[in-house]
Write a structure and sequence with these properties.
The structure is a homodimer. Chain A is 36% helix and 21% strand. By secondary structure, the first copy, chain A, is α+β, with helices and mostly antiparallel strands. In chain A, strand 17 and strand 18 form a beta hairpin. The interface between A and B is large, with 83 and 83 residues.
Chain lengths: 453, 453
């Protein structure tokens, strides 16, 4: 029996796909990266399926690439040659939702926004909300430690992860963390798995923290600026002023234009940047008024405080579709640098200067309240990879980020895309420690090899 | 030259203490545990001192026990025979405090409350506030992932740790994390060190997150109950009602009595439990009124909403002195179990029943909003260790906790005290992983051996 036949035999009928036309559709994430060809794709439906795959993979030393919805932007779920893609999107049970303990126990394939909606029926919410939250999964969010729009107030995915059930490389099951909001027994293995991009184990269940949902729809403001720098200064003023926004997003002109070309939003020629901010606090309206004053003081040409929920949702929806709008313009290298908040204006200026000098089209959106910038480098559709000037510009953006005390990736992960810059940020000691830890969990090196570290 | 002489020569004059009368005073934490006798105590004043100690210790394979203020309650800083105690309380610099980025960079010996006070000059606060925060250090708080009174709203120490500088067992320097509020480059080594109780490295600097301080003093309530179970039910109602307290503490009659005997607080005979709650939200007064109604509805015999800051501070001060009050009664085995919040009433009842059956005096205080209970087992002063009935009762408390989905330690750490129960909670797979990780950081096993894992 061949190894593949053994895999097929180990699982229920229909769970192993080997037709290359089919497997290829599970080989990519949202990046342009050219994947290797998978040996097979497993559509896991249970923890036992995952255990069977990992036992088989350990025996045959076959690489395994775990996969959620494939919405990643760093290449973390890109298939490697001859791997098994372990797709978890069919494990969609919300096993438990406890309003009293404000926790949920979920399988990795649950769509992020579905969990949030389920929680809201009890006056709770699942706070982390990456832009992709209507299509991304909790498992993928955990693997990348995804951020989102609300994390300026509520923190990233790790801040909502209390405990995990993980299948290790050899098929053993590890339970990490707990159901309590506090706990210090043992090392923080939960935190270690969150953001490890499938290189340490396969998450088959997560106990996540829910939070009280705000009682009313957040107060929302939109502000337009004649320059990105002014918008960035307004962001700094909003944070320093203690407004505690629950959302604080920035879009540059190139992004607004891409959206305008698609959706016809009536963009004025003078607008170079837009801020969208929300406050979901009890005194949200007061906070919104203060934020609008700070925008005006920092040069906004137009500020509106929205009283209307539909209008606000359209505004946020526009922000969430920013990436799709850019994909219409060309292939995209999406970056994800994050700087200390005070460095935001200078970092914005640096990106503009780098784009101009390399004659590269960069559209930038930012989770501005966190200092987390997404400069999107747009290049010609159909090229096998970004042209040299895009890589050169990206390289400069990374170095500028690190020079300002920032990090290469705020929320997307290192994946494949950022590995060549990784050592610049972490240094040789951390690199050795990373590989030492990897060795503890995955001595054969079969779990998502070549990613993240 | 002897090993000790080499150590003395490697450091500036006066930094190495070897007189047993002096070194013994650095050998204990706040537990009753009998320490081993240290070879020497090093009073480190800089990272270079720490590097010198670790290089020397690696060369001579001498165990090193890092130490902050020695306020730990689990034995984590207890000296082991022939070790060097590496005392970090003289490294007290706040190297940086950036209001714009809402971060501080601090040395490990900074007293926790001092950092909080420094932040408040800029309208910020350092949120984690263990009861010992006027005497404990940031380094010790990081080592144990300390909680505190405010963590029901603001999270534990790990939630405020952004990055660390760590001296590894062999003297190399590892920088973890970042200065930004978000970041996913590499594994979460910061989270791994926080709570690792000095077993993975020695923290010589930390970048911590500051938060906006509330603009007014929190609204405060105190409520008295005729039974602990009623008080616990009120806690559950306050959490489930979305009141979002910034402090929610419970004291049982035994604790109140100990305080009364010491400070004469005029305790009424019928009072079996007291709740103290605060809200530091903008609508704190409203939240406090709601909490007081929920206390009354759950059987409180007396509820007061305090408008007076001094009165409130006396109340909180009383809570913070609960442990000292109990130390007057006898030697204390302080436990630190944490259960899902909905399990609080049943867990309280279980502790009462266990105390009665074993005829053991247990005084309980709780960070009730987190489900984190501190049953303090009081026994005769001067005994070398707790009598068998105390251990038997503690054993039952731990097993009841785990049966209810709880954890052995919410915030004090495993240290030495809880090691014999550790495997009950973590299981053999996690145990193996813990030791694998320990091996990566400390292959010679010289860092705080026999603790935590």
């Amino acid at each position: 029996m061949t190894a593949t036949a053994e895999l097929i035999a180990a699982l229920a009928p229909g769970r192993v796909l080997t037709d290359p036309d089919v497997t290829d559709s599970y080989a990519r994430d949202r990046t342009f990266l050219e994947p290797g060809r998978p040996l097979a794709v497993v559509l896991a439906e249970s923890r036992d399926d995952v255990v069977a795959v990992m036992r088989w993979a350990s025996e045959h030393r076959v690489p395994v690439v775990p996969r959620g919805a494939g919405t990643g932007l760093a290449g973390g779920a890109t298939a490697v040659e001859g791997c098994v893609v372990l797709a978890l999107h069919k494990m969609t049970a919300i096993r438990e939702l406890s309003p009293a303990d404000e926790i949920a126990v979920v399988e990795p394939g649950v769509i992020t926004a579905d969990l949030d909606r389920a929680a809201r029926e009890f006056g709770l919410m699942y706070a982390p909300d990456p832009s992709s939250y209507e299509i991304s999964t909790i498992g993928g969010n955990l693997a990348t430690n995804a951020g989102g729009l609300r994390c300026v107030k509520y923190g990233v995915t790790r801040d909502s992860a209390l405990g995990l059930e993980v299948v290790l490389a050899d098929g053993r099951i590890l339970n990490t963390g707990r159901r309590t909001v506090k706990g210090v027994t043992g090392y923080d293995l939960t935190g270690l798995f969150v953001g490890s991009e499938g290189t340490l184990g396969v998450i088959t269940s997560a106990t996540v923290r829910l939070r009280r949902a705000p009682l009313t729809y957040p107060a929302t403001i939109a502000a337009e600026f004649g320059s990105l720098r002014e918008a960035a200064a307004a962001v700094a003023a909003i944070i320093a002023g203690g407004c505690q926004p629950s959302l604080l997003e920035m879009l540059d002109r190139a992004t607004l234009q891409a959206i305008d070309e698609w959706k016809n939003i009536g963009l004025e020629p003078s607008v170079q940047a837009m801020l969208i901010a929300q406050s979901d606090a009890v005194d949200g309206q007061t906070a919104a008024e203060r934020m609008s004053v700070l925008c005006a003081e920092n040069g906004a040409s137009f500020v509106a405080v929205s009283a209307d929920r539909q209008e606000a949702e359209e505004l946020i929806g526009m922000r969430r579709m920013a990436y799709q709008a850019k994909e219409r313009l060309g292939a995209c290298l999406v970056e994800d640098v994050c700087v200390p908040r005070s460095a935001l204006p200078d970092m914005i200026s640096a990106i503009e200067e780098i784009a101009a000098r390399h004659e590269v089209r960069i559209c930038t959106v930012a989770h501005a309240g966190d200092g987390n910038l997404h400069p999107v480098f747009v290049f010609e559709h159909g090229l096998p990879e970004p042209p040299p000037e895009v890589w050169a510009a990206a390289d400069e953006v990374f170095r500028e980020t690190l020079r300002r005390g920032g990090t290469l990736t705020g929320e997307h992960g290192v994946g494949l895309l950022k590995r060549r810059w990784l050592a610049l940020e972490t240094g040789p000691v951390a690199e050795e420690i990373h590989h030492g830890i990897k060795q503890v969990f995955d001595p054969l090196g079969i779990l998502n090899p070549g990613k993240a570290i």
